[in-house]
């Protein structure tokens, strides 16, 4: 498994009490498969994604990324793990205004120490994969909302992560563009062989995903489709 959460519990301070965001959640996601996580606002979806991304340390349980247990890793080691093995697509694309689409991707490779020529080749391949090779020289203000989201997706794949985490990619898009983005994420998950977790409140675009997991009050359960395994206690 490329992403494994075992008995993960996460709580937050709530006055004198503790609010349980995740309640002994278990989730296994192999490479090349896409899991959609759905649930109402406040159910724990974003907390699950943050824990999987190693941005938040759970109270209990273990998170393993590409065979590497994250428990006990230093802040620097976690940063390196995210840089090398985890791609994250946030709800807002967060593109740098002064950079073109291809430069948004090249920056990621430069951080990883790749040579400029190699980085540009990889960036152009990914922009072509998301249907934006012809927009490589455009800056964010020259792109539509859907195009900016696709650039963000390509950027997350730039360093060939084994785990891809996507947060509400259709929230700012209309139905047609939202469906196109979900189809694109599904296709790239299979092509790039990433273990992908997609958090969404929109159930209308989930026919192509490999498995759907539902979160309610911090507990995870599965609904149909094979290929992955998850558990909640």
TrEMBL record:
InterPro entries according to UniProt: AAA+_ATPase (IPR003593), ABC_transporter-like_ATP-bd (IPR003439), ABC_transporter-like_CS (IPR017871), ABC_transpr_LolD-like (IPR015854), MacB-like_ATP-bd (IPR017911), P-loop_NTPase (IPR027417)
Any one Pfam family match given in the protein's UniProt record, by short name: ABC_tran
Record-linked Gene3D superfamilies: P-loop containing nucleotide triphosphate hydrolases (3.40.50.300)
SMART domains linked to this entry: AAA
Transmembrane segments: none
Gene Ontology MF annotations: ATP binding; ATP hydrolysis activity; transmembrane transporter activity
Domain ABC transporter as annotated: residue spans: 3-232
Keywords linked to the UniProt accession: ATP-binding, Nucleotide-binding, Transport
The keyword Glycoprotein is assigned to this record: no
GO cellular component terms listed in the entry, alphabetical order: plasma membrane
Record-given protein name: ABC transporter ATP-binding protein
Annotated source species: Streptomyces coelicoflavus
């Amino acid at each position: 498994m490329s992403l494994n959460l075992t008995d993960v519990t996460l709580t937050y301070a709530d006055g004198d009490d503790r609010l349980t965001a995740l309640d002994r959640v278990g989730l296994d996601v192999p490479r090349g498969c896409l899991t959609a996580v759905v649930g109402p606002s406040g159910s724990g979806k974003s907390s699950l994604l943050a824990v999987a991304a190693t941005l938040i340390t759970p109270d209990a349980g273990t998170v393993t990324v590409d065979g590497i247990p994250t428990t006990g890793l230093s802040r620097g080691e976690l940063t390196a793990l995210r840089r090398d093995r985890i791609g994250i697509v946030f709800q807002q694309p967060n593109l740098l205004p002064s950079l073109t689409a291809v430069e948004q991707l090249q920056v990621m490779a430069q951080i990883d120490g790749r040579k400029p020529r190699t980085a540009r080749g990889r960036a152009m391949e990914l922009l072509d994969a998301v249907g934006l090779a012809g927009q490589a020289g455009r800056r964010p203000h020259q792109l539509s909302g859907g195009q900016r989201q696709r650039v963000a997706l390509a950027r997350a794949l730039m360093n060939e992560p084994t785990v891809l985490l996507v947060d509400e990619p259709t929230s700012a898009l209309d139905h047609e563009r939202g469906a196109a983005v979900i189809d694109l994420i599904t296709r790239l998950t299979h092509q790039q062989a990433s273990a992908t977790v997609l958090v969404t409140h929109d159930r209308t675009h989930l026919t192509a995903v490999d498995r759907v997991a539902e979160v309610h009050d911090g507990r995870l359960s599965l609904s149909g489709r094979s290929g992955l395994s998850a558990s909640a206690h």
